[in-house]
Each structure stands twice: as structure tokens, then as C-alpha cells.
């Protein structure tokens, strides 16, 4: 079963998919190892790995490259940020082709102008509703497999209103999108309203410290959300741990030993590669030795 088909099966189960955010293969494997059913590749995290803020500075090629590496390191579906589709309908068409070719199960495309900004920052700008829907139509037409999931993200709550966000989400669903992503509802009442007013599966972006109020995952599922992504969990934790460990080292303190190089490499398939060391040698020579 393809990754895209696996994700479709998860969506059909009616159990909310929780996809923590990965920034690379290390975090992608950690999420899969922890038993989650899907991984989300965060654009903000990908930007950070390349030394940039989430300001739409990363190219489509860089984003697809990171997604492809994560896909190759895990055995569960990857949902990926694809920003604005990196241009107009033509760019969106190619963007879908490249992400699908890389083995990604789903992408979300947003209605900000290019280059975009993180959805939980101020002063975002939108493309027209007509331009956004044209991109969604292009995305739906570009996929080779109908299992590949198109997620339509709208940032119009912050720029215009919740009503505009709901209208854009519904228009996207009517024109080929499979899931609606209303970014940054600002109150619990708005979080509750989105799955009621949007005519299709909804994604909730859980950004702690952002514009959306804190919400328990159990509550989000009860409200009817199909997917919850948690993009900043590992990135934020990594930065905190790095600062703490480096601060301790600066003061001459080492943390307790928690593993060894062998245990670390075991997380990344060392046993399989060890078997390959001798698996392809000439059996006669191997026996003689």
C-alpha cells in the first residue's frame, strides 16, 4: 500500500490523525518510533534547519528534498507543508508532481501571497479567492493518484474574518481539495465552529504560544477534527535542550551518559546494514575464510 493510500485509510477510520512535526530524518524516525500514525513535515522547521525564519525563503526544491529524505527514513505517511505552492497555478501543478513523486502522502497549499509568513505572525497578505481556488484546481488536476491528499489552507481568519475563512475552505473543498485547514482560529468558540461550518474533513494546527488557544487533543477529536498537526513540539524542545546542554558545557558540566554510539546508530537501522556487510560476498570465498 502506498503512503498516500495509508493516509486515506487513516482518514476513513474517523479517528483523528495526530501528526507531530518533523524537521529532518532524526525527528521523523523518532515520531514513527513513538508509535504515531503519521508525520508532519513543518515548513518552519525545515526553514530553521537551513538557517532561515519561516518567511517563505525556502525553495520548492529544498522543501521536496527534505520531504523525500524523511519519507525514505520512515514507514508511515508524511503530510508536508508546501507553502503557497511556490507561485501561480503552473508552479502549484509542478509542486504537486514533485511531492507526489517523492512519496509524500499529502500536502497543504495556502492562500497567502508569495513569499508567505508563518500563520501565527502578524501582517499576512492574501491572494484573491479566485486565485486561491485556481491553485486548488491545479493541485487536484496535477496528482497522478487520487489517494494523494490535497489540503487547502486559508489564512484569511487573521486578515479578513472567520466567515471569509469558512467560505474559502468550502470553496476549496468544492473544487478538488480533500481536507480544509483554517489557520489560527482565535477563540475556543472559533475552534468549535470550524468543523461545524466547513463541509468536509478539517485539520487543526496546534501551535502552543501562537494565536490559537490551548486545546487538548482529545477535545479536538471530539469536536470533529480529522487531523491535528503539532509542528513546533520537537523543534521547540530541541532548541531548549541545546541551549541547556551547551550552557552546562560552557560551565564545564557534562550531562549523565544515556547511551553509546552503538545504541544511537541502532535507531537508524545499523542492524540491517551490518547484515549487508557480508550478505553479498562470494559464498565460496566466504566459506574458505
UniProtKB/TrEMBL annotation:
InterPro entries: ICL/PEPM (IPR039556), Isocitrate_lyase_ph_CS (IPR018523), Pyrv/PenolPyrv_kinase-like_dom (IPR015813), Pyrv_kinase-like_dom_sf (IPR040442)
Residues that span the membrane, as ranges: none
GO MF, any single term: oxo-acid-lyase activity
Domain of life, per lineage: Bacteria
One Pfam family, short name: PEP_mutase
Protein name: Carboxyvinyl-carboxyphosphonate phosphorylmutase
